[in-house]
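Possible regression after last week's pipeline update?

I re-ran a chain I had predicted before the update to compare outputs. Posting the input and the new output here so someone can diff against the archived version. Not blocking, just want to make sure nothing changed silently.
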Amino acid sequence: MRVAEAIEPDEKTEAELRRLSKGRRVEARVQQRARVILLAAQGWQNKDIADEVKLDRRQVALWRRRFIEGGVQALLLDASRSGRTPSVTSTVESHILSTTLYEQPAAGTHWSTRTLASYLGLSASTIRRVWLRHGIKPHSQGTSKVSQDPLSRFEDALVDVAGLYMNPRERALVLSCAEKSQIPKLNRTSSQRAGTMHHDHWRNGTAALFAGLKKLESTVISMCQDRHRHEDWLKFLRLIDRKTPKHLQLHLIVENQATHKRPKVQAWLAQHPRFVVHSTPANGTWLNMVKRFFCDISEHGIRRDSFTGVADLQQAIAQYVEHLNRSPKPFNWTVSDSDTAQVTRAKSALARWAISAEKAGASHP
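New output (post-update):
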């Protein structure tokens, strides 16, 4: 005859089991499991315990084994179950996705949950759940542009910029720099309700905002100008030179624009070797962290306000930047799903670069 394995709890464990077996706020099923273990500790066999606590003998054996393997904590948790068989198989889900993305309805430009459900013979709620699970929104129109730069050139620039975020240099300052040009000066008629404006407005003049976001501190160096020219970019570089410690090397992440390549700009950079410029690849603005700052200042400092002149607009921008610098909050550099593969390749290249640099240092002490 098979004999169940003996259970010999210590005093602390036995006291915990007795508390669980009689506690008023303990679930009935947990009380039942604790009684099973207490009776087993007294030398009872599974059949007798099953008759006493009104359980099947196999359940008693199950909880004995779980207690031996996991202690009292194992009695508090239910084992994971397979659950109900999914009504939508992977084949059906794949068919829904391929139809949504690569086929067009006969009368329309995109699918809705009802039209696709009628076409595939499924319910609209099933289509909605599959779309929600995969983040598909056929009603939202998106655009994309493929970079025309050679892949090797793109990879080099990607590794260069991604390396500044993931492996910052020592005794250096990383600034994400960009320009937000043609910010409109809108004079709106106000509404009596707070935070709202009428749709009519008068537009007279624009401003260009130059901003450099310090990666570690998330403080901003900014400058407003009437226009966006290479002379204005030079003024901004001089401003950065004045407002940063002279002993630090400056790594500037900038967009690949014509104003940054003008001969006067290149000549000034050659005279100031502590400035190291890292250009983002074409259509790679997602690499520039300062874009997050531009979104915030547009949403919270400009879009919902009214300005009577360009000077008022520039003053509002300056006040927003001053308030941000008093209590800065770090901007986390996040990567969208479409760019994950590119950053993964950048990480691999950075790892290879680190290994080769270490080997070179070992061979040349």
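Follow-up from reviewer: compared with the archived run. Strands lie at 172-190, 197-214, 220-225, 249-254, 275-279. Marking as no regression found.
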